[in-house]
Amino acid sequence: MRVDFFFPPCTALPLCPFVDCLCRENILFGRRFDEYYYGRVLDACELYADIAMLSNGDQTDVGEKGISLSGGQKARVGLARAVYQNYDIYLLDDPLSAVDAHVGAQLFHNVIGPGGILRN
């Protein structure tokens, strides 16, 4: 007997979701750049202000060979990477643990909640 399972595209966000490269590359993670969707993801993940403060915006090297980001910034970049993949299923490993309560509430509302970007 043969059983075929269909698994829709999915993505996982590990607890340490960071790669040493350009900030934008960290979010795109190999996907094609879509300016409109990228902007929506940055907005939902509360990253616009942080990226604006970087010397070269989202073209800034981050990680070991670039600038250091805070734990909360790394967590939001990792969440943005997962959201940008635009999959049907998301496995999130404590994505709000590195952010304060106010930012966590905003992220939940903007990303996961009933009106969040993942619901569309």
What order do the helices and strands come in, and which of them pair?
Elements: E1 10-13, E2 21-22, H1 23-28, H2 35-44, H3 48-53, E3 61-62, H4 71-84, E4 89-92, H5 101-112
Parallel strand pairs: 1-4
Antiparallel strand pairs: 2-3
3D structure, described in words:
The chain is of the alpha+beta class. It has a single domain, classed as 3-Layer(aba) Sandwich (Rossmann fold). The protein is 40% helix and 10% strand. Strands 1-4 form a two-stranded parallel sheet. The chain has a two-stranded antiparallel ribbon with strand order 2-3. The longest helix is centred in the middle third of the chain and has 14 residues. InterPro entries: ABC_transporter-like_ATP-bd (IPR003439), ABC_transporter_C-like (IPR050173), P-loop_NTPase (IPR027417). It comes from Parascaris univalens (Nematode worm).
Task: Kindly summarize this structure in a few lines.
This protein has 120 residues and is an alpha+beta fold. The protein has five helices and four strands, in the order E-E-H-H-H-E-H-E-H.
